[in-house]
Amino acid sequence: MAQHRGQHRASHRGDRRARDARAAAPVAPVAGGRRRAETPPSLLARASSSVVTGARGAVPSLSALATSVGAAAGPRWRHRLTVLPSALGVVALVAAGTGAVAAGEEVPGRQAVTAAAQARAISAGTDAQGVVRSTQVDEREAAISRDSERQALQDAAEVRLQRAAEEQAAERNAELKQLGRAAEARAGEIAEKAENAWVLPTTGYRLTARFGMAGGLWSSDHTGLDFAAPAGTPIVAVATGTIKETGYAGAYGNRTIMTLADGTEVYYCHQTTIGVSPGDKVIAGQQIGTVGSTGNSTGPHLHLEVRPGGGDPVDPYQALTFHGLKP
């Protein structure tokens, strides 16, 4: 009894499932006004579409696809689905080929994109290297420019220093030349003054008879100036000149005549000794003899006469005073 109830329920469930499947299957119109349910080929089309779509992604397994189609077809069409795996295999192969072709078509584009990216990277790297090199070149040129400017400034400074040194040297040379000329001029003046300078004829003297005095000691007025001094006192030339004559000359005693540069003649008379000879060049202050008392004399003394141009005598006192001396 229990077994019979179970079979009845199972049969009842099977009939209900069959009715549900038939109700779910679409009905297509046929000739003669009768309709029939959609056959699995339409399901195969959907499966093929799924397989083709999956070729671009992941392809589902054929057994799983058959199971899903069988479940959708119902028991009426299950006995006809034995050929479904083969058909699905063909569809899968077609989809795989289509995907391969599509993938093959996409590869060149990807390679082109990759090559373009590589080219851009290489170009960017080349540009970066060019920028770095350009920067380095600019830095080197800037360093060279700074060095050149520094060297130019140093050269200009050296040139200025050299010019300043040359100018100072020129000024110094000009000053030295000027000093030299001044020294030469001074030396000439000194030499001229020395040549024309007069000195007193002796030392340790006293004046005893002046120019123009008259008396029984002279045949006429006195023609000179007498310097009384001890015998042997040195007599020197009153100026620079040349010895014209020496020797004994009557009333003058031992006499020396000297001619100066301007032609003036100077007489040194009554000497004890004569120390020069005619033609000697003497300078002012040079010894030419000694005080004596030779000739017309009353005691040791020097009789000094001055005759401008070798003519008449003039007062020796005034001649000495004229040349800055005070007898």
What topology emerges from the helices and strands here?
Blueprint (H helix, E strand, L loop, with lengths): L1 H23 L2 E3 L5 E3 L2 H16 L6 H12 L10 H113 L9 E2 L17 E4 L5 E3 L4 E8 L5 E7 L4 E7 L9 E2 L4 E4 L10 E7 L8 H7 L5
Helix pairs in contact: 2-3, 2-4, 3-4
Can you describe this structure?
By secondary structure, the chain is an alpha+beta fold. It folds into 2 domains: 1-25 and 36-145, no CATH class; 206-322, Glucose Permease (Domain IIA), CATH 2.70.70. 52% of the residues lie in helices and 15% in strands. It contains 5 helices and 11 strands, in the order αββαααβββββββββα. A 7-stranded antiparallel sheet has the order 3-4-11-8-7-6-9. Strand 7 (254-260) and strand 8 (265-271) form a beta hairpin. The protein is rod-shaped and about 210 Å long.
Number of helices: 5
Q: What value does the Rg take, in angstroms?
A: 79 Å
The description of the largest β-sheet is:
7 strands, antiparallel
- Biggest β-sheet: strands ordered side by side in the sheet: 3-4-11-8-7-6-9
Number of strands: 11
* Global mean pLDDT: 76
Q: Provide the low-confidence segments as ranges.
A: 27-35, 50-60, 100-107
For the record, the count of structural domains works out to: 2
What fraction strand? 15-25%
Order of helices and strands: HEEHHHEEEEEEEEEH
Structural class: alpha+beta
End-to-end separation: 201 Å
Shape: rod-shaped
Portion in helices: 40-55%
